[in-house]
Design a protein that fits this description.
Number of strands: 0
Order of helices and strands: HHHHHHHHHHHHHHHHHHH
Strand content: under 5%
Number of domains: 2
Helix content: over 70%
Amino acid sequence: SQAEAFRMGSIVLNVLLVLFLVVTVLVLIFAEPLTKLRTGGAISAEQIKIATNLTRLMMFAQLFFAVSNFMTGILQSYQRFIIPAISPILYNLGIVAGAVLLTDRLGIYAPGVGVVMGAFAHMIVQIPLVRKLGLKYTFSFNLKFPGVKQFLRLAPPRVLALSLSEVRNLAMGFFATSIGSLSFLVIRYGLLLMAIPIRFVGVPIGQASLPFLSKEAADTDINHFRDLLVQSLNQVAFLALPATVLILVLRIPFVRIIFGTANFPWEMTLTVGRVVGILSVSIVLQAMVHVMIRAFYALKNTKVPLVITLIDTALYFALSAGLVFGLQYGVLGIAIATTVTAFVEFGLFLLLLNRLVTGLLGRPLLWPQFKMVLASFLMAVFLYLPFRIFDELVFNTSRAIEVVGLAVTTGTIGMLVYIYFAALFEIKELYLFVKLANKFGNWRQLLSETDEVVVEAYHGADDV
């Protein structure tokens, strides 16, 4: 029942808060040695002191995030996605407010205070809707309550998988700084640009699909589960593939627009562009992994994603070490290692998920994917040609405003070509997103009937 579900949620929240409090106390005590471990001897004692104080300050934000992310999970399970989407915006506004309003009084600590303010806003904005749904908090640590044991069984593999991802990020920093002082910035900028379509496509669709996948898994209807999973993967590919083409072809203008031209040397722009070119090949794969990993979670399987993450992390270490220290590929070696491991990760997820979901690798998935890849290839051709012509003959790219004009003009041409071929090839996802765009046109009704819109979009996907 809903009452039992909320009681179980309260128990889980209480356990998480205790764990977070323990971790917070440990970090507050050992903040300085932890800071030295992360930075080595590259920074001064004064900088270590500042970093230590900022670490202690921002740990309080993590407690707010623990509660806030718990509420996000509840809201998404009820197919409420707008408020969880707004909360990160408020978090960023909190950081900006702290930096703008408090810098005169607090100096470098102002953004740290802004992080705490933003985390609090991230949490507080979700409370009214959670209460409206009927959540009643219970102070209880009854670990024998139905469902809690299952949570405690499923959670550790997920925590370990996330920990391995953080270890991999640390390894990336180690390999990059071993090459040179600028290499870390180069790979960091490349990853930031690559992550934009993944965060805007793969993560939202993965989060939105989880409640529906969980429902179909609970109903033990593997056919409906497979159909929904295929729809989600096709939707991700439909959006991520043209984004990949745009970033691959327009990588140099994008680097100059996003990271600036005045203080960004041309040689560094070219290096970041090469890194982005290598990384962009795996964008659609990493976006689709966000859906597949949630399919495993919906099936109450967290061990397989952990094993895949272990393999992926080990391969990343081996490839990075070999390419950076052995073959002397420099920062490009890190980008190659990232892309290769993304291909391996995607392949393992797809093959192992196909063993659990019979018929996943069938025509409903493969045929639309083939048409999308073909449309994307044609888009790349018709995007590259005007890009080269306009770059040489029309726009003076020594000026920032004309770099923007070049990117917008050629990018628009590329997207129109993609839409044209998507319609020509009768790719269903095009008509689905057109239908959703029409719904967003009536935004007042959308805000008042969020759950109905989401459910309607899912159930109507086969009819479009």
